[in-house]
Amino acid sequence: MRVLLPLIVLLPLLGAAVSILAGRARVAQRVVALSVLTAVLGLAVALLFVVDADGVVATQSGDWYAPLGITLVADRFSAIMLVTAALVLLAVDVYAIGQPGAERSHVGFQSVYLVLAAGVSAAFLAGDLFNLFVAIEMMLTASYVLITLGGRLDQVRSGMTYVVISLIASVLFLAALAFTYAATGTVNLADLSDRIADLPDGLRSALAGLFLVVFGIKAGIFPLFFWLPDSYPTAPSPVTAIFAGLLTKVGVYAIIRTQTLMFPDVLPTWLLMVVAGTTMLVGVLGAIAQDDVKRILSFLIISSIGFMVMGLALFTVAGIAAAILYMVHQVVLKTALFLAGGMIEHTGGSSRLSRLGNMARTTPMVAVVFFVPAISLAGIPPMSGFAAKFALFDSVASSAEWWILAVAVVTSMLTLFSIAKIWIGVFWAQRDPDEEAPPGAGRRPPLMMTAPTVVLVLMTVALGVAAGPLYDYCTRAAGDLVDPSSYVSLVLEGGS
Amino acid sequence: MSIVMAGTAALLFALGTYLLLQRKLSRIIVGLGLIGHGANVLFVNSGERGLPPLIGEGDPADFADPVPQALVLTAIVISFGTTALLLALAYRSWLLSADDEVADDIEDRIVARRGYGDVEVADETLLVDEAELSPDLPRRASTEESS
């Protein structure tokens, strides 16, 4: 069963190689990509059941024992993130094939997309910091290509911003790794969790803060998020959808993994609470000011990151379980919302609120496909958003942190307001008849665009219905995170 | 880590940071290269110094630490690849606009301009015709607005 771990990383890489060799044979490329992503989804689900039964699964590459070798570790947190990631990767690939746009005009789309999939999987399975660095770099390099696919001037401009900021984050990661290795002599996560406890307090806090900044740039916490609304909206819709769903969540995953495994109770609670609260508020206030559907949704990503950090800041099993549940829900939800935004742009011709209108009557399908994830984002039952937000608020209330609870409630109401703004602007209000219609308006979305969006929307509802067993799983995962002794002992005793 | 090595890494970081704050992408790329090299210098020096870690050179206890050296090789190759990608982006920008400046975000300027409203603005150059900023903005079907 331990062969599942490297297979999940290897299959997309092999698929990328085959896809490039297939060259201009588009059908072959699509078949390879879709079959690889389906296989990865199946493997991830199998891994989920194995990990839930055994607790932690680890394997050493090349049989070099930890802490020197490369360790791939799957615990419950990694497994659920892998399943969610595989699901949205498959859905967005189908959508990209259906949309006349980036995938059709570029030979390399499928191969780069598969490299992105491999990078994300490797990041969730990394058992040491340097492997995490390499995996994130793999993911980021693929994303640099995807975000500038098309080569228009505005894409190149926002691509520049994105690439430069991400490279700065990578260099900071290297510097943090250097300091960690100099202080402890190892980069293996399990080994570090033992050795960092022996370091002096000031050095521990410095390392914890440095890692928070590094992964915070990737995740998009305040005040490091400014690159996100600048660069995400100009990419093609499927690309923005997969970035919104996955890339920031890999950053949050890394924050949770390092803070729980390496620095338990090092950073003061008030620091993470302040970061979470400001992220939530600034994100949603930025969303309200925007005129473009994709930019509103980009700012709402930032706001949701704040909720996840709030769950982590509590450092209780309930808090981290709620954060994990919220992460799973947000991956599916944000992808669904951005795919719906892409459909709005396809059928309406533009994504600006001031140019669209009346789409509830002209294209009711798009209206429904947007409405359901939108109310899930606002937290209305019976969608998954309600379950996830309720779990978060409940954990905050049981830790008696009333200020952050008030901020979270206000943010939720403002989120509802910004969602309503999109709904009214795009679907309900009449467009100004003096203005000319945007070019390309009135196209019907093809089935391959509608189908994956509908599947993801149904997943949002299903996650809400299945919230009970899912939350129990997340509680078990959070228990493993708060008390990592089983993780550490399994990895260091040589998972061979 | 000796003071010379730490000082070298610090100097590289400082120079790289200064260049990163420039407008032109070519200078930003040089700055990123310097910062990357600074991080690599830092990383290599985080291991022990000693003899070359090859079998037959001497007592293994006196060897230099090979692990950070191996890790830095990976990091150098990664930064080489991403620098190549950035250079391609800069060249593309040059082809499209004869310039490689990292420009402001147009949407931010549009949102900020909406805040001026009907206020008298002393500096008329701030009032840019919105239609020029982005082709996707609403325009009147019958008459073209110009400011």
**Global outline of chain B:** elongated
Structural class of chain A: mainly alpha
Strand content of chain A: under 5%
Our count of helices of chain A gives 21
Biggest sheet record of chain B: none
Shape of chain A: globular
Helix content of chain B: 55-70%
Number of strands of chain B: 0
Order of helices and strands of chain A: HHEEHHHHHHHHHHHHHHHHHHH
> Which range best describes the helical content of chain A: under 10%, 10-25%, 25-40%, 40-55%, 55-70% or over 70%?
over 70%
Distance between the termini of chain A: 12 Å
Low-confidence stretches of chain A: none
**Biggest sheet statistics of chain A:** 2 strands, antiparallel
The pLDDT mean of chain A sits at: 89
The gyration radius over C-alpha positions of chain A equals 22 Å
Strand content range of chain B: under 5%
Let me know the number of strands of chain A. Answer: 2
Largest interface: A-B, 53 and 48 residues
Structure description:
- The complex is a heterodimer of chains A (496) and B (147).
- Chain A is mainly α.
- Chain A is 76% helix and 2% strand.
- Chain A starts with a helix and ends with a helix.
- Chain B is built from 5 helices and no strands.
- Chain B is elongated, with a radius of gyration of 25 Å.
- At the A-B interface, α6 and α7 of A face α2, α3 and α4 of B.
Brief descriptors of the model:
heterodimer; A: 496 residues; mainly alpha; two-stranded antiparallel sheet; 21 helices; 2 strands; globular; B: 147 residues; 56% helix; elongated; disordered C terminus
